[in-house]
Specification:
This protein has 264 residues and is an all-beta fold. It has a domain of 114 residues: 6 Propeller (Neuraminidase), CATH 2.120.10. It contains no helices and 23 strands. It has a four-stranded antiparallel beta sheet with strand order 1-2-3-4, with no helix packed on it. The protein has a four-stranded antiparallel beta sheet with strand order 5-6-7-8, with no helix packed on it. Strands 9-10-11-12 form a four-stranded antiparallel beta sheet, with no helix packed on it. The two termini are 34 Å apart. The relative contact order is 0.12. The mean pLDDT is 90.
């Protein structure tokens, strides 16, 4: 079995990356400090995946059955565990969960999305109290959507898998209004993550000759290349540290697939 490493979050002090890995045979969650050669096991179980931070940064939220689930109709849990230690606790159970994310203090908004029959639905939740209300819904064609919640909890940035237009939709959560921008010359977008200051987005893409690049785009759709990789070694996503000094890159190459760049 090929070893995989997928970064999803940073600790609030920007010193360590939280990632999922199957290095021990099944997916577990680890924490590794910059410059250290070994990782600390944070959560173990049967296929735990997708570590995200709570809004105040004190807890790791995660999926306990791995992703994607073998059967999307079977409810799975969102779990939480304090980074300082203690036993995991279940937050909620829901079928067809695709993604979970939280804003940052002073916002306390956390969202999860489901994807069913071409419809993506967003729900709020609270780590202490479970599932909240439906926040937004959209019908899509193709392979579904990827999304990221802005640090202040006011905007969703959404891209559609399978589109070849370089289109980003910004949905205002207070008003539910949607604004679209198109990245000129970059039609292939695969994932999206906000910058820590909410001023723009990190977007993996590819050139016309299949070379992976990481773009930074502002809210008006002006994009520049931050990083260029090796041909046919896909960049899946990029996770910025809270202090904006580092990026953890999820790259499918060799036996490991996490790289970091700084001073971007």
């Amino acid at each position: 079995m090929r070893t995989r490493i997928s970064p999803f979050a940073w600790t609030p002090d920007s010193k360590s990356v939280l990632f999922s890995s199957n290095r021990n045979g099944s997916w577990k969650i680890f924490k590794q400090q910059i410059g250290e050669a070994t990782a600390e096991l944070v959560v173990e179980g049967q296929g735990v995946y997708m570590p995200r931070l709570s809004a105040d940064g004190s807890e790791v939220l995660y999926m306990p059955q791995g992703y994607p689930p073998e059967n999307a109709s079977i409810p799975v849990g969102i779990m939480r565990k304090n980074l300082a230690g203690g036993a995991p606790q279940e937050v909620l159970r829901q079928s067809a969960i695709y993604n979970i994310q939280c804003a940052r203090i002073p916002s306390r908004l956390c969202l999860f999305s489901t994807q069913v029959a071409g419809t993506t639905t967003f729900f709020s939740f609270e780590p202490e109290h479970g599932k909240g209300s439906e926040v937004a819904r959209m019908t899509e064609t193709g392979e579904g959507v990827d999304w990221s919640l802005s640090p202040d909890g006011s905007l969703l940035a959404i891209i559609n898998f399978g589109e070849h237009e370089g289109r980003i939709r910004f949905m205002s959560l207070p008003s539910r209004s949607v604004r679209e921008v198109v990245l000129k010359d970059w039609p292939r977008l695969s994932n999206v993550d906000w910058s820590p200051d909410g001023a723009g987005l990190f977007l993996p893409s590819t050139t016309s000759n299949s070379t992976p690049v990481l773009l930074f785009a502002n809210l008006e759709g002006k994009a520049r290349v931050l990083w260029e990789g090796q041909k046919y070694a896909p960049l899946i996503w990029a996770v910025p540290s809270p202090d904006a000094h580092y990026l953890a890159l999820n790259i499918f190459v060799g036996e490991t697939n996490v790289w970091m760049i700084e001073n971007f």
